[in-house]
Specification:
alpha/beta, two-stranded parallel ribbon, globular
Length: about 240
């Protein structure tokens, strides 16, 4: 059973005959102690305060039966670890298409490949999220007077709290034609309409930060923690 904040993404799951519903990760409408296992992938790093991130982990623990386990993945600030660059950094010199269309980091690919990226599977995700924004009367607008730094995709992080650009491919173009081949001045109204840019908030975790948050809860035991391709990961057991 899956859940997501986006109604349109949940609708896509329904069309594929998966069980999913809309909810907030801080308040999941499932009975306490009713789950054998819970998975939270690329979610908690979108909460903007220590208290909310901790409350999300506590909510995961509430759902678990005693002895149940939870797997959590969050984006790491350390994109180079033990002298090895993550796939996110290694793909810096990828195709222009890849650099132009940035996704949000989802579970539609293997756990070791969960960085903002472009793929054919993400088109439905992009369309669903854009429809959500339009339904709420939101338009794509450049970030102005933001106190948060805007991260440069495919580079190392210099701040834990950042806005990550998400370039939504728009307009019509021939197969194989990159969006950058459309001749409109950068920053023009036409250019923005063709390829609107959204900014998603991320709190990227430092080494040890996720483990420390989990250890502060007396209802779970930290079974395992590890680094996986630019992500910090933990496995928790409900006491």
């Amino acid at each position: 059973v899956g859940c997501d904040r986006s109604k349109n993404l949940v609708d896509i799951c329904g069309e594929k005959n998966f069980q999913a519903f809309v909810c907030d990760a801080l308040s999941v409408p499932i009975r306490s102690g009713s789950c054998d296992a819970c998975i939270s992938i690329a979610v908690i790093h979108h909460f903007s305060t220590v208290e909310r991130r901790l409350a999300t982990i506590r909510e995961l623990a509430r759902l678990l039966r005693p002895g149940g386990t939870a797997l959590i993945y969050v984006w790491a600030m350390e994109q180079e670890y033990k002298n090895q660059k993550s796939k996110y950094l290694k793909e810096k010199n990828g195709s222009k298409d890849t650099e132009e269309e940035i996704n949000t980091g989802t579970t539609q690919r293997p756990l070791s490949d969960q960085m903002p990226d472009s793929s054919s599977q993400d088109s439905a995700c992009s369309e669903g999220l854009l429809k959500d924004l339009k339904d709420k009367g939101c338009d794509a607008k450049p970030v102005a007077d933001s106190r948060l730094p805007v991260h440069t995709n495919r580079t190392s992080f210099h701040s834990q709290d950042v806005l990550v650009p998400w370039h939504l491919r728009g307009g019509t173009k021939k197969k194989g034609e990159g969006i950058d081949t459309v001749l409109f001045p950068a920053g023009s109204k036409e250019s923005q309409e063709l390829s609107p840019v959204f900014h998603r908030y991320y709190h990227v975790f430092r080494e040890g930060e996720l483990e420390a948050a989990c250890r502060s809860l007396d209802c779970v035991r930290l079974q395992k923690s590890y680094y996986d391709q630019g992500n910090w990961c933990v496995v928790l057991e409900k006491l």
